[in-house]
Amino acid sequence: MDDILIKPVTKDDIGIWIDLSREYDEYIKELVSDLTHWYEGNETDIAFSDYMTAKIEKNEAFMAIDDKECLGIVAFSKTYNRITFFTVAHNKEYESVGKILMDYAFNQLNTSLDISINVIKSTAEHVRRERAFIEKYGFEFTNEELENGVPVDKMIKKHLKSLI
């Protein structure tokens, strides 16, 4: 991979973000037959379009690019100290792009506190690779939840306690 840059996601990038998210549709369909709640929200979860807009406005969404091509996106919540979106494009080198995105997120979040991330419960190879990658960063399974109607595993990276 040539030079990979990180740039803030803008409203002009929403179509790219949706396309990247759609790469996961087949895995989500393994878990739920209807993607309506995943994209349009429900009584407890906001619509994906509203989520993207909020992350952009809060400067909490970033894209890895190479020659102006999207390689992956990470979004997070500084308020809740969690990674809320983490995806590497299917046709890209997962480890190198994932490392750049994860390191960037860690630099934005408070690593002296626990950090959480949700991973869909799919057994598809791409999702298994994602889960293994996330586990390499010290995240551990804590419990199952529903995110926009889709079963996910909540994973936590415990903060390191100071010895002082």
Commentary on this structure:
It is a single chain. By secondary structure, this protein is an alpha+beta fold. It has a single domain, classed as 3-Layer(aba) Sandwich (Aminopeptidase). It contains six helices and seven strands, in the order E-H-H-H-H-E-E-E-H-E-H-E-E. Strands 1-2-3-4-5-7-6 form a seven-stranded mixed β-sheet, sandwiched between helices. Strand 2 and strand 3 form a beta hairpin. The longest helix is centred in the middle third of the chain and has 15 residues, at 94-108. The model has no long low-confidence stretch (mean pLDDT 90).
Quick rundown:
Helices cover 35% and strands 29% of the residues.
Pick out its properties.
35% helix; single chain; 164 residues; seven-stranded mixed beta sheet; Aminopeptidase; 29% strand; alpha+beta
How does the helix and strand content classify structurally? alpha+beta
Put simply, the count of helices is: 6
CATH C-level label: Alpha Beta
Mean pLDDT: 90
The amount of beta strand, in percent, is: 25-35%
> What is the global morphology?
globular
Strand order of the largest sheet: 1-2-3-4-5-7-6
Instruction: Detail the poorly predicted runs.
Output: none
Kindly give the count of domains: 1
